[in-house]
Amino acid sequence: VRLHFLGAAGNVTGSRYLVEANGKRILIDYGMFQERDYLERNWMRLEAPPETVDALLLTHAHIDHSGLIPKLANDGFAGLVFATPGSVDLAEILLLDSAHIQEEDARFKKARHRVEKRTDKRPDVLYTETDVWKCLSRFRSVPYDRPIEVADGVRATWFDAGHMLGSAHIRLEIEEGGRTTTVVFSGDIGQSENPILRNPTRLDHADVVVVESTYGNRCHETRENALDALAETVNDVVSRRGNLIVPSFAVGRTQELIFFLKRLLADARIPELPTFVDSPMAIRATEVFHRHPEAWNDAFANRVYAGEDPLGFQKLHFTRESDESRAIALYPPSAVIISASGMCNAGRIKHHLANNIGDPKSTILFIGYQATGTLGRAIVDGENPVRILGSLREVRAKIASISGFSAHADATELDAWMASFGESPRHVFITHGEADAGQAFRSRLEGRLACPVRVPKMGDVFDDA
Ligand SMILES: [Zn+2]
């Protein structure tokens, strides 16, 4: 069994692993790099000829795990993409959105470059919406918890990872030379007690574990503290007569935020404000949430079956069209504006930031992870001024962060997830984290496990002889 680390190695985005065994090549995820320093990598071809890859197994639909699948297909990959039903539905939405954002940004950039009399040497987009439709025909739904033969001698099982709808840990059981090697890819691990999703699955055996470490060195505040902080932030912005701008992943984070705002409203802890979900895919994403009861936790299921709409309230507006989106700026404050992308590196959020970041009455609230090199990270780190839509803008709005709504397990939960394997792993690889997070997690694991614990670099190859 040979394992190639081709992304999310020493950084957080661009997840992709190539497994070679039994003369077969299997990819786990094929994500887009989102950190500014690594954007170049998105244009590179897979190191192995894409037509020689037998199958692609997707842990979940987030773009940093799925975002380059259409490009891989364009480059020659002709195999199937296996994913849970929730991931198949969300990948359609997210990949089409990714193509759409690229095409929209390219148009916007072109117009700006015409004014600035600059030219771009590179193609405008990594892939188009048409490319996405073509590659979606290769997707096949797989259920949770049932082993599937994805290639000769390779069985794969998807287990709920509680990170986003459809998310999974993937376990490979590889039969080679009369022995079975079990390799577990954690994918992104969720935080327990998600308001909608089930808790991450605990697995009890693996020879090789590849585990994420996004929050390998940090602990989240509790959900109750996060709710208190959300109430305080909303009330504060109302008292200052400003707007609350929330950059948020349109799928998952946004639904959870709606759920929490609704809960605060029901408890009369915040006034009912016009709340805009400015993302064309939010309505469709919410429909997908309704279509996948297999991913709901018991409490959420009970609310739905009691006739409640846990993801809606009266002043909540979904804005699909771009003229509706522009009209939000004309709305008198205070309003809550939730828009994507979550790290501010693309999409309509940039326009809302451009409109509000210079206003001391407004607040920009971050509720998700901000990767190095993204606009979101620059703002969180206090960079001032910041470049938005091609011009430098002074940051005068209040900048706030709440970590308790994170979709990722924190250090304590990562430790607990690893502990369920007991002493079984022979090799552990820590990926999907920045250097500090990976090293901190490693030193904790080394204290507990007898096996080698490595933090691979991009391009590293491991042979399990
Ligand atoms: Zn994810």
Overall description:
The chain is an alpha/beta fold. It has helices spanning 63-66, 69-75, 85-116, 129-136, 223-239, 253-266, 282-291, 298-305, 322-327, 349-356, 375-380, 411-419, 435-446; strands spanning 2-5, 17-21, 24-28, 55-57, 80-83, 139-141, 148-151, 154-160, 168-176, 179-185, 208-212, 244-247, 275-278, 316-318, 336-339, 363-366, 386-388, 391-393, 398-401, 427-431, 453-454, 461-463. The strands form 4 sheets. It has a 7-stranded mixed sheet. Strands 7-8-9-10-11-20-21 form a 7-stranded mixed sheet, with helices on one face. A hairpin with a 2-residue loop joins strand 7 and strand 8 (154-160). It is globular and about 70 Å long. The N and C termini lie close together (7 Å). Bound molecules: zinc ion (ZN). The site of zinc ion (ZN) has 6 residues, from loops.
Write the layout of secondary structure elements.
Layout: E1 2-5, E2 17-21, E3 24-28, E4 55-57, H1 63-66, H2 69-75, E5 80-83, H3 85-116, H4 129-136, E6 139-141, E7 148-151, E8 154-160, E9 168-176, E10 179-185, E11 208-212, H5 223-239, E12 244-247, H6 253-266, E13 275-278, H7 282-291, H8 298-305, E14 316-318, H9 322-327, E15 336-339, H10 349-356, E16 363-366, H11 375-380, E17 386-388, E18 391-393, E19 398-401, H12 411-419, E20 427-431, H13 435-446, E21 453-454, E22 461-463
Parallel strand pairs: 3-4, 4-5, 5-6, 10-11, 11-20, 12-15, 12-16, 13-14, 13-15, 16-19, 20-21
Antiparallel strand pairs: 1-2, 1-22, 2-3, 7-8, 8-9, 9-10, 17-18
